[in-house]
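INFO  loader      accepted 1 record
INFO  loader      residues=200
INFO  predictor   begin
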Amino acid sequence: MKAAEHLARHDPVLKPLVKKFGIFKPTLHTNYYYRLVRSIIGQQLSVKAASSIEKRFLDLFGGELPSPEQILQIQPEELRAVGLSNAKVAYVRDLAQHILNGQLELEKLPKLSNEEIIKELVAVKGIGEWSAHMFLIFALGRQDVLPTGDLGVRSGIKKLYGYESLPTPTEIIELAEKNNWHPYESVAAWYIWQSLDNSP
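INFO  predictor   done
INFO  writer      dumping tokens
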């Protein structure tokens, strides 16, 4: 409620979207490990394709999410056989390795700042800034994340704010500052996604 009121008060472009789409109430994915595995599997795929591959991936392990140990024990060829690319096989294995050797301590992430979390996550192969931003918003519920690299956000801003081409990350940061989105940048992004009728 507070976020919606803040954005509606400060940004005349978002105000009608707040009225139309109501209050942002994210369903948080609190299984951080599963969230990261899913984000790797789903990269550069349609929702339908990602869902199909994820099901086949889970079926390899009896329909359950495999532990990091199980991911490292299974043959890479078996992971490729369910539809994971060579790169994604390497990525899920690197994630498993980071968790097992203590380089990535998932239970500590909620205590860290956004910048610290991004640094921890992007150290894993295949997890870039975009995936880290989505994790902050939809796993940890952080409201002050501006996903400057998200194509939906960039497309929505272009349409809503009249940019001639897709805005750059710098332009998005400037727009957010000009319209006083802080500390609710994630919520502003959600309204922009809704305007496309294509939320992530």
